[in-house]
Amino acid sequence: MALVWVAALALAILLWAIGSDVAPWAMKYPRDLIIPLKFWISDLMAWLVEDATFGLFTFTELTRGISWLIERPYRLALGLLSHGLLRGQGSDAVQILPPLSWIAIVATVVALGRYTKDWALAALAGGCFLYLAIFGQWQSAMITLASILIAVPFGVAGGLFVGLAGYRWRTVERVIRPVLDLMQTVPVFAYLVPILFLFGFGPVSAIVATIIYAMPPMVRITILALRGVPDDTVDLGNMVGCSQRQMTWKVLVPTAMPGLMVGVNQVIMLSLNMVIIASMIGAGGLGFEVLASLRRLDIGAGIESGVAIVVLAIALDRLSQALANKIPPEHSEAEARRPLWRRYSYTSACLAIVMVTGLLGLFAGWVQSYPEAWAVTTGSVWENLVTWININFFDELEAVKTAILLNVLIPFKRFLLGLPWIAVVGLLAVAGWALGGWRLALLCAALSLFNVAVGLWAKSMITVYLCGISVIFACLIGIPIGIVAAERERLWSGVKVVIDTLQTLPSFVYLMPVVMLFRVGDFAAMIAVVAYALAPAIRYTAHGIRQVDPQLVEAGIVSGCTRIQILTKIKLKLALPEIMLGINQTIMLALSMLVITALVGTRDLGQEVYIALTKADTGRGITAGLSVAFIAIIADRLITAGAKRAKTRLGLE
Amino acid sequence: MTETRSKLICRSVWKLFGNGAEAFLRANPDAASAPTKIAEAGLIGAVRDVSLEVREGEIFVIMGLSGSGKSTLVRCMSRLIGPTAGEILFDGQDLLKASAKEMIEIRRHRMGMVFQHFALLPHLTVLGNVAFPLEVQGASRQDREARARDVIDLVGLGGREGYYPRELSGGQQQRVGIARSLAVEPELWFLDEPFSALDPLIRREMQDEFLRLQQMLKKTIVFITHDFDEAIRLADRIAIMKDGAVDQIGAPEDLVMRPATPYVAEFTRDVSRAKALSVGSIMRPLGNAGARGDYAGELTADQKIAQVAPLLRAAGQPFAVVNGTGEVIGELVRDDVVDILMDG
């Protein structure tokens, strides 16, 4: 094993040193051999839109059908929440029913909070929605909420059905697993382009993109939750003679419900994460506000809308989590005998408030919609804060930025760009072979070769450089925090709140303060990526250390280890596999954030995808998107294999 | 024992896990006598050539340690797992030839099963759980709940109908499991280590409860356990399994007195004989004591020695042993009992 490593490294170094003279093709991939994949994809797309047919209906008709299916409920939700039910089109429209009053919506959210958990949650959720009203974000927030309300059920139902199919038929699972891997690693921007082609610009495309983005975890969680149903319970279903359908809906799904609810929460959070990106292809609401302000560099307005998204996210996250963890009611025989309105007291109360405020709203405008005069804006505060920081700390910030750029970023980038592609592919294959056998070696070689062959090598290396440097910084910050926090209960609960919140923030939100302080460029991008990808490094480290068997620690103490020795010789060693998984997660998050930082002017694959989006070039977008995905998959497979080996070696499996 | 008909017959049942199991069995008809061949073929022999009969109305216990294949065997009997080869006759019908539809009908109406970890549905109340098999059959809510209430009373959980499983103790949960399996009035009742997950004290109480129910219901029962004490307490007959094959089938006393293999002997060595042997198995033929008046009292042949031992301590004379119809068939002498007790 060691011999192979030494040989491979020696070859690589040799090639690096003298390659440009002896074998220029090994340094720079020959232009003639580049596969024109992006043109093929664009042609395929054109064929799909223009000529493809399923016999009974064309592909275009299919997409129109899907749009119709989504548009109907979306219009209804939008009507209820935002502009009332309308009759007629465009400017001739007449309002036949006003939307739900802001008071009714806040009351409903409060009732949901109380129903799913307690008054504290009710206050939190109600407070979040009140915030939206008071800070003048109500209208936008309701548009966003409407699209979330439509995307989530589609995402959940779709994920559930695909998951059920994957659970029942092994072949289906074998097919969807790599598809899911791709869907979760291809940057969202990449599939915005084809969606734009198929569904046009507008809220429906945005919802389609959101569903595609939010569904994969639901599929995975469904399969996992169904697999987790105890064998005894499945046997029971068979023994009482359940048909397939009864087995699914009466035994498997209800038993797996707690797990499935975790999936619902995931779908909601991912849908919210998509809010800003989806506004690039026509979603209105808060996401659009953020994007618009980012484009005109109106920091104050951007932050206000960004915070509104976070507030909405927190409310929906906590509510759906409470629903997932809700303890079913205690036994009560009397329940069935109560009158209907008392059995559903929360629903009744909400309906009553909706009616009363609806009627009152006809006479008193402030009941119907929150008066603009009462709204508070914080935009100028943010604006002033940024100005103040820039005036007073400009030199310091600039100095830090320049120092890191010159001493770390640029040398690292030069080094990576100078590597011969053939050596990198070879070393990845060797790593794959060493960690997981020839299959993994083949996978690593094939995927990295793809990036070479489609002519995106330089951009891939820039991606690796930015991602790598960000991950290193994230680990340098995150792992020590995780170690320190793991040992101290109170500190840990505090840190947990912070990283939970960090993970609720949509990725775009990280861009704003970064742009304000560091403007554009690689350094700004790196800071945003580090901030976004920090959470898993902390979480997994702390988790890994906390789950070390206390008996082993006691054994260490009895043998006379000092605190440091216990940490370095026992805890960190045993937590290593978990920490590796944390680094893996950090890499995945970093890559997904990296694509978004294209907006602040990087030159990597993300930029390639982003340019494709602005030019509506399907082939270019998907090719670059696949390249990003393949980098992610290589990293993921190598690290997972490494972690598994470490686990086996430590006897933790 | 009077001759009763067989409810369930297994003939050379095999279950091999691994690829190409069926082809392997076809190619190696002698596999039963050559267990090493199975491993060489990369297969795992979970059940190997098992033949047994379960008689109507008896408690047939399959006993073995974990990994002995007893759970797989019982799952083959109910066809939850398809055996690799063999015949399973249920009232003369070969279950392995039954269609999926027929199997659903048989399971819905004629079989019941109790599971080690209860397998209660967490989202249903006690009532809902017990009524579940009837719900699956499509019975009306009124009918199934009426029937469910009856069986809930039968297992002593009356008043808890509205509780959810998580509100009940382990013992109570298994009572629900038992009630549920009885709701369809099965002819054949499988119990897969029903009491293994319970505390020892509760376990004993549940065994008594189970015997009480069986006295009333007279079901044909296949009972799985890894606990030999439990087996001899409950069983009419016991099959001992080792590595997927049956080592010996017989009444508890047969196993204790005449173990067929060293493995069975090893098992029964530490068993208290007084608990395993019945009065009938050590009684002497009638004769010495002569007239009926000389006996200290009457015992029935199926009582265990441990149960009657205290009576014999005071009595100077032997006891008369009577069969089910009250006819005197032998006598029990104190010295014989003492011998057994001394053996431990």
List keywords for this structure.
heterodimer, A: 653 residues, MetI-like fold, 29 helices, 81% helix, B: alpha/beta, Rossmann fold, CBS domain Like, 2 domains, six-stranded mixed beta sheet, 13 strands, 40% helix
Radius of gyration of chain A: 27 Å
Basic shape of chain B: globular
Give the class-level CATH name of the largest domain in chain A: Mainly Alpha
The H/E string of chain B reads EHHEEHEEHEHHHEHEHEEHHHHEHEEH
CATH architecture call of the largest domain in chain A: Orthogonal Bundle
In quaternary terms, these chains amount to: heterodimer
- How many structural domains in the coordinates of chain A? 3
What is the third-level CATH name, the topology of the largest domain in chain B? Rossmann fold
Helix-and-strand structural type of chain A: mainly alpha
In short:
The complex is a heterodimer of chains A (653) and B (344). Chain A is mainly α and 653 residues long.
Describe the structure.
The complex is a heterodimer of chains A (653) and B (344). By secondary structure, chain A is an all-alpha fold. Chain A folds into 3 domains: 100-134 and 338-377, no CATH class; 145-327, Orthogonal Bundle (MetI-like fold); 395-418 and 456-650, MetI-like (MetI-like fold), CATH 1.10.3720.10. Chain A is 81% helix and 1% strand. Chain A has helices spanning 2-22, 24-27, 37-50, 59-83, 102-116, 119-134, 138-168, 170-185, 188-199, 203-227, 231-239, 244-255, 257-273, 275-278, 285-295, 299-325, 340-343, 345-363, 365-368, 379-418, 421-453, 457-487, 489-504, 507-518, 522-546, 550-558, 563-596, 605-615, 618-650, and strands spanning 85-87, 94-97. In chain A, helix 3 (37-50) crosses helix 29 (618-650), helix 7 crosses helix 13 and helix 16 (299-325) packs antiparallel against helix 24. The two termini of chain A are 24 Å apart. The mean pLDDT of chain A is 84. Chain B has 344 residues and is of the alpha/beta class. Chain B folds into 2 domains: 54-272, P-loop containing nucleotide triphosphate hydrolases (Rossmann fold), CATH 3.40.50.300; 276-343, CBS domain Like, CATH 3.90.1280. Helix content of chain B is 40%, strand content 22%. Chain B has 15 helices and 13 strands. Chain B has a 6-stranded mixed sheet, sandwiched between helices. Chain B has a 4-stranded antiparallel sheet with strand order 2-1-4-5, sandwiched between helices. The two termini of chain B are 28 Å apart. At the A-B interface, helix 11 and helix 12 of A face helix 4, strand 6 and helix 5 of B.
